[in-house]
Amino acid sequence: MDNSVIIIGAGFGGLSAGCYGQMNGYRTSIFEMHDKPGGLCTAWQRKGYTIDGCVHWLVGSAPGGAMPGMYSLWQELGALQGQQVIDLDYFYRVEGVDGRTFNIYSDIDSLEQHMKELAPEDARFISEYCKAARRFCRLDLPVDKPPEMYTPFEGLRFMFKILPFLGDLRKWSRMTMKDFAMQFKSPLLRDAWQQVWPPEFSSIFILMTLSTLHQKSAGYVIGGSMKLSRAIEKRYLDLGGEVRYKSRVTGILVENDCAVGVKLADGSEHRADYVISAADGHATIFEMLGGKYINEKIRGYYEKLPIFSPLIYIGLGVNRSFKETPQIVSGFAFPLDEPVVIAGEERKWLSVRIHNFDPTLAPEGKSLLTVMIESNYPYWDSLRHDMARYKAEKEQIADTVVALLDKRFPGLSSQVEMRDVATPVTFHRYTGNWQGTYEGWLMTPATVNLNMKKTLPGLDRFYMAGQWV
Ligand SMILES: Cc1cc2nc3c(=O)[nH]c(=O)nc-3n(C[C@H](O)[C@H](O)[C@H](O)COP(=O)(O)OP(=O)(O)OC[C@H]3O[C@@H](n4cnc5c(N)ncnc54)[C@H](O)[C@@H]3O)c2cc1C
Fold it and tell me: Mean pLDDT for each 10-residue chunk of the chain (469 residues)?
């Protein structure tokens, strides 16, 4: 039997491909350039703090939500067994310029009531939107198979399942977050909704997210991102899989248009019956395969589709409990007294995540804070050639952010005992993701329904997995 598989990358995509390969009788080996699993789903230690670098909410942490099948997937992957999962009442909070506070509650009924109190003039749209969110609680999007692999019968079954939701899916997936926000007459809600997600993002995702939060199936796993990644790594190893860390793949070996193995940075070659790349899509197609197996459609993705803007990711260890501050899944945003320039761009708001819901990330009585600021890759790429300037820029950003937070939380600057700044270049260096992006393709009205093939034209025995497909 042809059953050996080489997988490139031990992020969630690669580890999952490895687990399912093992469960289905293949002999798999993962080659990972880093010395740990997780890829983007990671964390790092600084001065007694754990800077969690990823997961905010895990869709499928319990049965229910718009994709109930996700829960079974996480169970099969060993991600949830024995984990403590918490569901928070607040998803996001925005303090408006008028001094009022808008809470995005995880519970749809509380959110509806709260929005109507804040903006009675928007009652009609609020009702319409909350009704749609409640309808989405009954949606059951299958996740067990990619749609392009459906048999005609499975295709029909899928259509039958989504038929009652077709109107909602069309309407909300075509609306951007900016257009969604503009539906509100209230300046507070208009401003607030624009802080949650990028303006081009499709508004269907707030409905999906709210329906899963409402049903308590988008929880947070105590211990954070690395705990999740280690759990899936353990499942993979228990299934008999093998991970080779510090093994950077530089090329995919091809013979007669068949993938036959990989070449590593140390010059060694490793062969298998199949190759799966769960590494960055751009690097896989244009570097590891030299751009040889591509068509106009795939080239078009990489030339035209928008990606999530990469992040400046600031971690702060603060000697303060933040016990009095509500526990919020995604953090909260507040307007600045006056605009500041960070990494060459003017900013009028700051959003901070206070990890006061996870005591494992900071010493007792202290807290981890993280701040995510969208930036652009070329800016940082040009700086990194001058290390002194690159480091100075990071220091200056940390100073600015601490000063801004100090205004909102007086006394904070004297309580900061750890500062760490990761840039888009850091994201690229540690995970290989193109342009340092952190979630791959941005889900806009134009891309939300895209089904990307997991194969490349003309290349046999080769598959792609992970966020780029
Ligand atoms: C701040 C942040 C918040 C997020 N929040 C959430 C959230 O709340 N919920 C959610 O679902 N998602 C969230 N995401 C997104 C999610 O983490 C990613 O979409 C997901 O982890 C991507 O997994 P992947 O396996 O496709 O890719 P990656 O994680 O990028 O894994 C690719 C792996 O391949 C390895 N690799 C790359 N090139 C090579 C090579 N040449 N040789 C060997 N190995 C290589 C990399 O080192 C990496 O380990 C967030 C991401 C970030 C950064």
Answer: 92 98 98 98 98 96 84 96 97 95 97 98 97 92 84 91 91 96 96 92 92 95 98 98 98 98 98 98 98 97 95 98 94 96 96 97 98 96 94 98 97 98 97 96 91 95 97
The model scores a pTM over 0.90: yes
User: Which residues approach ligand 1 with their CB closer than 6 A?
Assistant: 8-14, 31-34, 39-41, 53-57, 248-249, 278-280, 283, 431-433, 438-439, 466-467
DSSP H helix total and E strand total for the chain: 16, 20
**Distance between CA 173 and CA 446 in Å, rounded?**
9
Among protein residues, the one whose CA lies closest to atom 12 of ligand 1: 55
Expressed in angstroms and rounded, the spacing between residue 313 Cα and the centre of ligand 1 is 15
What the block records as the tokens of 262 is: 């990989």
118 membership: H or E segment, kind and range: helix 108-118
User: Per-residue pLDDT tens for 6-51?
Assistant: 999 999 999 999 999 999 999 999 999 999 999 999 999 999 999 9
Q: How far apart are the C-alpha atoms of 114 and 108, rounded to whole Å?
A: 10
Amino acid identity of residue 48, one-letter, is: G
Q: Which residue has the tokens 């040889």?
A: 292
For a mutational test of ligand 1's pocket, the pick from 40, 196, 270, i.e. the residue with the most ligand atoms closer than 8 A to its C-beta, is 40
Cβ-based neighbours of 419, under 8 Å, separated by 6 or more: 314, 315, 316, 317, 398, 402
